[in-house]
Structures are given as structure tokens and as C-alpha cells.
Design goal:
Blueprint: H1 14-18, H2 24-27, E1 70-71, E2 79-80, E3 91-92, E4 105-109, H3 117-120, E5 128-135, E6 145-148, H4 158-161, E7 163-165, E8 168-173, E9 177-180, E10 183-190, E11 202-206, H5 219-228, E12 236-240, H6 251-257, H7 262-279, E13 290-295, H8 297-308, E14 315-319, H9 360-363, E15 370-378, H10 394-408, E16 411-421, H11 425-440
Helix pairs in contact: 6-8, 7-8
């Protein structure tokens, strides 16, 4: 979902201003006046766009939204209870401590997000930074791109004018989405003293580039520190821009939230050869030496790159991954989008769902993946009002995935962070050193 800039922490609070706790029932279908001029032809009153009422009462009916684990809170989103009986068992950590970097399982992070020693003694990145720009064309892939025109003067754009398909709230109709060109920056960081006599491991993350996300203070400097301390192998770090935009109807949403191998294939064909050429490096083709990372929707892309292309990637790191029904355009073959990685399409509850509604990971043999991911107790909960589809609770998505991964015997670590919002900056700064070490290490089961 939203590409909140981690260099500018005020961006983390986008939803605090865009959807308050008092607007929760609005997000589930209750009418309210438009935030801008209701008389405008482009900014229609929400009453005129009223979707079907949400099913929050009967789990036996389709598109059930479970609100039983929510507590009252003062932030943008309701506070989730980490010990909700719907969630798999997790280990409570003492406040301000991290899970062990050599263990798998589910962990609950305390509410105090202190800056670890790795950041307090960080030195500026000492390696080479190579940046280049990619523009949409007939040879660059994803051509033409997609953009969504936001209606003015309506302040919250897509959330006011989009509607769900009659009878199926999992399908979102987005007016104003149309083809358009895109331009994006790719940054390549080469740490000092990396060996030149063999192909190098690499970490690639979405939401990079000029308008993107650099976790905490400086991901590149952190990689320097962890490599120097022999906690991770020497590696190349690649940040790929998304050209801005967000969610359904945008190029970012199209690329990151599509559940297929398309984005991984695009990276393989159009990004990695340019990285090797412009940085004068050779990248490893061993999937054990390739890691994907992302935040929100780019976190969903990180999962998709590894799940659909395990021949290319085995390691995944994600904060607040959008493993929910964000895929757009709607794909009838996978009607639940990212939700279907871990859970069935919500239109057929308490039944063996016919294909294509079944969950993917539970039905498949265990893949050779290593997965670290996090959600916050105030992560997103139905931010787009017209989609009361039972598949837009970010925390429940993360918990369902943890149950699936644990049941299948995956090598994974799941962190539930207290006092944390969507793509929470303090949580990222606190956990990223441990997360990177875990990602590249070997682990014992608890």
C-alpha cells in the first residue's frame, strides 16, 4: 500500500490524517459527507457511492469482516490484540528487546522502539553509489504505464469516487485510471572491498529511487556495518523506484500488488542487466544469494518475486506487507489477490473453495524460502471504504500467513510490533539490523 517515506517520518502518519479512528465505520460502509466540496461534479457525496453494507456479524456468509480482536485506540487505525485467539501463538519479548537472530517463529515486540547500537555508532556509507534513470518505452517493459487521475477538489480522491462491483465487493472499479508514461530512478550501492572474482549476492528492494524509501537512517551504511562485523555477506544493494502513485489504478499498485511472476521477470530482464553494466559488477544467479525486500505494497511484491519465481529468489524481508486484496486490475484467476497467498478468497467461507478461490501456499509443497516480516498493532484496517470484502485487514493477513508458514515448516520469523503503525519508522530502525542478520543466517526452530 502506501509508500510512506522513511526518511520523513511525518509520512508514516499519512493515514492518521487521512482516516481517523472515528472514521473506521465509514471505511466499513457508513455514510459521511465528502471532505471537499460535495457540490462538485468530481467530488460526489459518499452517500451517492454507498457500497453494500459490510458483513461484520455472520462468519457463515461471504466477505465476513472479523472485528473481534480490535481494541480502542487513539491512532489512525484500531489497535489489534496480539493475543487474539484467531492468531497463532507468539512469544512476548521483554520491552525494547529483539527476537534472537538464529531462531524461527512468531514474536511480539514491546512498545518501546529504541535505536539499537548499530545505528548509534553508524558511519557514513563508504562504497560506490551508482544511480540511473529508466523511462517507459517499447523496450523497457510495463509500457505503457498506468496512472490514476485524482478528482479535484476532492481531497481523498480514489477513496471517494471508486466503487465495488455490485454483489462482489472484492472487485474495485477505479475511474480515472488510464495509460501514461513513467520515469523512475534505480540506485545501486557497492560496498567497499567487495570481492571481484565471483558473482555477488544482492538485496533488491522496491520503493527506492528519488521518491522512494530508505529504511531508517541509511540502509547502505547499515549494510557496510553488518558486512564489516561479518553478520551478513558482502553484497550489492539495489533500490528500484516505482514512479510514485499508490494502490489500485496506479503504476506502483499495478506492479507491486499483482500476484504473479511478472515483476520478478521485469526486474530480471530490464533492471539487473543494467545494474551489472553500469556498476561493473556480476550478480549471483543462485537464488540463495538473492534477497527481496519491500514495504507495504512493495513488501507484497517481495513475496510475489520469491513465491512465483523461487528459481530466482529465496530470501524475503518485508514491513507491513500488503498481503491483502490490492491486485488491480482484478484477475478472475486469483480473485483475492495477495490475500490468496495465505487464505481462501473470502467469498466462499467455511467451504472447500473451488478453484480459483483456494489459498496458494497451503496447497503447495513447501518452497525453499527464508522469510522475515513485520506488522504493527495499528496497521491498516480497511483504508478504502468501498471494499468491505473481508480481505483488507493487514494484521490478520500477517497472522494468517504466520499460521500457514508455521504449519508447513517454513524457515521464517514473524514480528508483531506493539505501538506501531503502517510501515512504522521506529520499528524499522529498531529491527532492521536483526532482520538483515536473520535473513542471511541459518536458524534453529524454537
Amino acid at each position: 500500500m502506501f509508500a510512506d517515506s522513511l526518511l520523513r517520518h511525518q509520512m508514516f502518519r499519512f493515514w492518521k490524517h487521512g482516516l481517523s479512528a472515528s472514521a473506521l465505520m465509514l471505511s466499513l460502509g457508513s455514510p459521511a459527507p465528502c471532505q471537499a466540496q460535495a457540490a462538485s461534479a468530481d467530488c460526489k457525496p459518499l452517500e451517492a457511492l454507498q457500497p453494500p453494507q459490510p458483513n461484520t456479524a455472520d462468519p457463515r456468509k461471504p466477505f465476513f469482516i472479523d472485528t473481534s480482536g480490535l481494541q480502542n485506540g487513539t491512532g489512525a487505525m484500531p489497535v489489534h490484540d496480539p493475543h487474539n485467539p484467531l492468531y497463532p501463538q507468539a512469544t512476548d519479548l521483554p520491552d525494547a528487546t529483539l527476537p534472537p537472530a538464529d531462531r524461527t517463529g512468531n514474536y511480539i515486540l514491546g512498545p518501546t522502539h529504541t535505536l539499537p547500537a548499530e545505528w548509534q555508532t553508524i558511519q557514513p556509507a563508504r562504497g560506490r553509489l551508482i544511480s540511473f534513470t529508466l523511462t517507459s518505452s517499447s523496450t523497457s517493459g510495463y509500457s505503457p504505464g498506468t496512472i490514476r487521475d485524482e478528482p479535484e477538489p476532492c481531497a481523498i480522491g480514489m477513496r471517494n469516487v471508486s466503487t465495488s462491483q455490485p454483489g462482489d465487493p472484492s472487485i474495485l472499479n477505479v475511474p480515472g485510471a488510464h495509460p501514461a508514461p513513467w520515469i523512475r530512478t534505480v540506485d545501486v550501492y557497492v560496498p567497499p572491498n567487495v570481492p571481484a572474482d565471483h558473482p555477488l549476492p544482492f538485496l533488491i528492494f522496491g520503493d527506492g529511487g528519488n521518491d522512494g524509501i530508505y529504511p531508517g537512517r541509511d540502509l547502505f551504511a547499515l549494510v557496510d556495518r553488518l558486512v564489516k562485523d561479518h553478520r551478513i555477506p558482502p553484497m550489492i544493494v539495489i533500490g528500484v523506484g516505482s514512479d510514485g502513485g499508490d494502490a489500485q489504478g496506479s503504476e506502483r499498485g499495478r506492479e507491486y500488488d499483482t500476484m504473479s511472476g511478472a515483476y520478478a521477470d521485469w526486474v530480471e530482464t530490464h533492471i539487473l542487466p543494467l545494474v551489472e553494466q553500469k556498476a561493473s559488477v556480476t550478480l549471483s544467479h543462485d537464488p540463495e544469494e538473492r534477497a527481496t525486500m519491500g514495504f507495504s505494497s512493495s513488501g507484497a511484491a517481495a513475496f510475489a518475486m520469491a513465491w512465483f519465481r523461487p528459481n530466482l529468489y529465496h530470501r524475503v524481508l518485508a514491513y507491513s506487507p500488503s498481503l491483502v486484496n490490492q491486485q488491480w486490475p482484478h484477475d478472475p484467476a486469483l480473485p483475492g489477490g495477495g490475500w490468496q497467498l495465505h487464505s481462501p478468497w473470502a467469498g466462499t467461507p467455511h467451504a472447500v473453495p473451488p478453484q480459483p478461490g483456494a489459498a496458494l501456499i497451503p496447497a503447495a509443497p513447501r518452497a525453499p524460502l527464508h522469510i522475515w516480516y513485520e506488522v504493527g498493532d495499528q496497521d491498516l484496517f480497511y483504508p478504502v471504504r468501498p471494499m468491505p470484502d473481508g480481505m483488507h485487514d493487514w494484521v490478520l493477513a500477517g497472522e494468517n500467513l504466520a499460521r500457514v508458514l508455521g504449519g508447513k515448516g517454513y524457515d521464517y520469523q514473524f514480528v508483531f510490533s506493539r505501538n506501531a503503525q503502517h510501515v512504522d519508522g521506529p520499528t524499522i530502525e529498531q529491527t532492521l539490523p536483526e532482520a538483515l542478520e536473520w535473513l542471511w543466517g541459518t536458524h534453529d526452530r524454537p
